[in-house]
Amino acid sequence: MKKSLISLFIFLILSLLSATTITPQSMFFADSYMLRARGCDANYWNPALLQKGYSDITIPILNLGMSLGNNSFNLDLYNYIMKQNYLDDNDKQKILDAIDNNMSFNLGGQIGIFGFTTSNMAFSSSVHLATKASMDEQFIELALYGNGDGSEIYHFTKKNNYAEGLSYADLTFGMGDILLPFPETVPAIKFGFALSALGGLGNVETRELEGYLSSNLDGLNVQQDLIIRTGLGGYGLKTLLGLYSEPIPSLEVGATLDNLFGFIKWQKQTQEEIYHFEIDSLYASNIEEDFYIEDRSTVDIKPYTTKLPLEMRLSALYTYKPISVSADYVVGFGSSPEVSKQGRISLGAQICPIQQIPISIGYCSGNDIYPWRMSYGIGLDFKSVALGIAIQSIESILPGSSTKGISFANYIKVRL
User: How many whole angstroms separate alpha carbon 42 and alpha carbon 36?
Assistant: First the structure.
């Protein structure tokens, strides 16, 4: 039974996509992509890069990025567990050693619906999906060992036990290549902005979670209180601001501020799911049918607003043909399924041994909800069409038995 529980936990983790919203080409560089984005991609990464002389269109479905990964179990450990007929104490400890305070699992993605650029403007639409969830290591310890000798006391809070999800569609207009009026002694700085009208599809968030379990001379005591808020259908907006400059030849720098004034107001089917479970001073001698109290209820609530936390990105790109290297730093000023307050660094490089064949590599340091990863990609780049495929290994330099997940991306761009 305990082995089945652990297998279920691992399956749930490995069956989910990576955290944070991504675009397919960004995966080629482990998200070190802010100064590499052009055309429709620039509408989501840095609209200052929208400029005359570059036009493209987005082809639905043919641009795809997917990832399967987690922050705790690699394939070696998973295969080891599944080969055991039962789990002894060494096996259980090996599982707990792989978990650092909590198991986090995430699902994220962005699907392009349409997009095109003309002159220094872009119009685009995408569907965004981001979820994150966490489970306290104590839950796993409890499933493996039970309550031990009875002296352990378990407390569960929202800090390490939660589930959040956010899905919305955007209709975005961007404009870039706007020269800011600085003195000639200052390197030219270009500005861009993207305004997004948002249509909320669905939202779920853990509002409260408090749990307690103890087993001692006072008997077994359990209490669990949980409130989850959900919403379907809503509207909102957000703004992305971008700056771009080339202070010296071959060196580009940029900065963006995303989710400015960002919010989604949920209007339809807004509810709270309330759950309470309690056992008070239970002894084996007094177990009866009504030894516990359990209450479930669903309450309609007023429309509510989800704020989209600000996110800042700084980037630098150096090009010495046929090689380019880049570095991005991103940090949020709040937490959401898409944004983390813990910063992360991405490094990317591209080499073109033949002009039409770009080869890319990337590394991302990761953070509390986004495990570190390595990316490898190759493409074909012609005058009117560009395409490519990439693979990404999570918490492992190369895909293999030690990886905690594998990601895949492909893209097709048509230039006008």
Answer: 8
